[in-house]
Amino acid sequence: MTIDFKDKKALIRVDFNVPLDKKTFKITDDTRIRAALPTIKKILKDGGAAILMSHLGRPGKKLKEDGSVDVERFTLQHVVKHVAKLLKTKVHFCPVTVGKQAEKMAKELPMGEVLIVENTRFQSEEKKGDEAFAKKLAKLGDVYINDAFGTAHRAHASTTTVAKYFKKGKKAFGFLMEKEIENANRVLHDPERPLTAIIGGAKVSDKILLLEKLIDFADNIIVGGGMAYTFLKAQGGNIGKSLCEEDRMKLANKLVAKAKKKGVKLLLPKDSVTADDFSNDANIKTKYSKRIPKDWMGLDIGDKAVADFSKVIKNSKTILWNGPMGVFEMTNFANGTKAIALAVAAATKKGAFSLVGGGDSVAAVSQMKLDDDVSYVSTGGGAMLEFLEGKELPAIAAMK
Ligand code: AMP
What we know:
Elements: E1 9-13, H1 31-45, E2 49-53, H2 71-74, H3 77-87, E3 91-94, H4 100-108, E4 114-117, H5 125-128, H6 131-138, E5 143-146, E6 171-173, H7 175-188, E7 195-199, H8 208-217, E8 220-223, H9 228-234, H10 249-262, E9 265-267, E10 271-275, E11 284-288, E12 297-301, H11 303-314, E13 318-322, H12 335-349, E14 353-356, H13 359-367, E15 376-377, H14 381-388, H15 394-397
Parallel strand pairs: 1-2, 1-5, 2-4, 3-4, 5-6, 7-8, 7-13, 8-9, 13-14, 14-15
Antiparallel strand pairs: 10-11, 10-12
Helix pairs in contact: 8-10, 9-10, 11-12
Bound molecules: adenosine monophosphate.
Adenosine monophosphate binds next to strand 12.
C-alpha cells in the first residue's frame, strides 16, 4: 500500500463474513477478522481513520417470513466488540450501510478510530454491483482499499463497482489481498519444480476448470476425495455406492488422456477406506478403489494411496492443495486427509512452497493445527479456485 493515509478516511472492504453461534451470535472462528488487521492497523498508525464494510452471511437468501431482512441474525454489530478488542481502538457502528447517517458518522469519525457500517448485503443492490449504491458507498471515504480476497471473485458493489469512483492513487489492495495474489502467482507463474497439485473434495464438476488448467502447468496431479470415484468408474472400476457423477465420466477419461499426452502424472487412490453407510458408525473395510463391493462406498483414501501420494508430495518443490481426501468431518474417514496434511508439512519443512487454498482443506489444516507448517493458507475458497483457474477476478480487474 503506497497511499499516505495521514488525515485520510479509508473505506476498506474487508471480509468479516465469520461463522457465528446460531443462538448467541458469538464469533466461533475469527480467522477472517484477524487476517484484515494488518491493513487496518497500518492505516490507523499512519494517522488515518478506517471505515469498514463487509457482508455477513446470506441475508438475502434467509429472509424472515414477512420478507424482510433478518437484522438480528445478520447484523455486523455482532463483530464490533471483538474488532475493538483486537485493534485496541474505539470502534463505532452505523446501523445503516449508506446514506445520510453513514456519511455523517464517517465525516465525524476521529482519526485513529474505526467505523463499521451495516452488512452490505442488507441492500439487494450489493450483489447486483449497482452503480448508484456503489457511488453512495464511495462517499464514505477519501480512499478505497480492498482487502477482501474471499469475495474478490464477485462483481458486487462494495468489492468491484465502488473502485470506479476512486481515481488512480486513491485506491489500493490491502496487505491480505496483496499476499493472496502474490502466493497464488507463485504457484501459477514460474513455480519451482516439481509442482504437485492435490485436488480433492466432493465433485469433479466443481473443479473441472482447475483440473484442465493444472494439466497445462503441473508436473503431478493427485486426485482424491469423492471426485476420484468418477475417474475410477470411468476406467471400468467397481465403485459400489461411492460418489459418482455419471455425466462427467467421459470428461474424466479425457482429462486422464490429456494428462498422459502432456507427460503429467495423474494419480488416483489405489485403495479406499470403504463403509456400508455414510456414517461414522458404519462398518469399515479397506478395499482396492476399483473393487469396492456393491453396497459399500469409498469415504477416504486407504494406506496404499496415502503412501503413493505422500511419496510424490515429499519430492515436490511447489505444492497446491485444494479439497480433502475423504469425509474428514467424520473421524473414521479423516486419516487420509490428515496424512496428506502431514506430508505437505514435511515437504514444506524440506524447503517446498505449499499453498493450501479452498475451504475444506483449509479447515483440515487448521483442525490439525498445521497452519504454521505450510507456507500459506488462503482465506479465499472460491476466489482462490477461480484465480488458479486463470480467471481475472472482478475485484482485481476493477483496481486497474
Ligand atoms: P469441496 O467443497 O468440493 O472441497 O468438498 C468437500 C466435501 O467433500 C467435504 O464435505 C467432504 O466430506 C466431502 N468428501 C470428501 N471425500 C468424499 C467421499 N469420498 N465421499 C463423499 N464425500 C466426500
